[in-house]
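Deliverable D2.4 — example input (structure tokens):
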């Protein structure tokens, strides 16, 4: 097991991982099978899985409470409404805003929060981005993972 040693917010006890060492041929076989399980999941279910797998849960809650970043529940409830940023500008919360926030998080920092989110550029596929957006849209006060 390995643990996060980079200070990027709270929740480090939830940032664990495993390292498996294998021969190159074994790795190629393993890599060729990646994603097959997730390919069949509906987007919102994949998004729920990614919420934990990609460590979104270390900074964004599902219950409306604030952590390092805005709650996913609050963002879901504000869908179609204006979100105000630390520079006084604003935009409507929609698919494009969420995609941009994940890929270029430092360009629009939500008022009241620090700009500490790392970019996920190159780390998420288009399907994974669509899945996180679909998951976010399904949230309500009773949502649990």
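Example output (designed residues):
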């Amino acid at each position: 097991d390995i643990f996060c040693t980079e200070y990027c917010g709270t929740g480090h006890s939830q940032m664990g991982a495993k390292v498996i060492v294998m021969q190159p041929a074994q790795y190629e076989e393993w890599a060729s099978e990646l994603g097959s399980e997730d390919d069949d999941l509906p987007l919102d279910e994949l998004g729920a899985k990614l919420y934990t797998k990609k460590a979104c849960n270390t900074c964004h809650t599902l219950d409306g409470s604030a952590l390092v970043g805005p709650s996913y529940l609050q963002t879901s409830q504000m869908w179609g409404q204006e979100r105000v940023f630390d520079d006084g500008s604003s935009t409507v919360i929609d698919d494009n805003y969420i995609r941009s926030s994940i890929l270029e998080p430092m360009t629009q920092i939500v008022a009241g929060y620090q700009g500490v989110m790392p970019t996920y550029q190159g780390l998420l596929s288009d399907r994974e981005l669509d899945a996180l957006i679909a998951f976010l849209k399904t949230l309500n006060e009773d949502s649990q993972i």
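Residues 62 and 124 are 21 Å apart (CA to CA).
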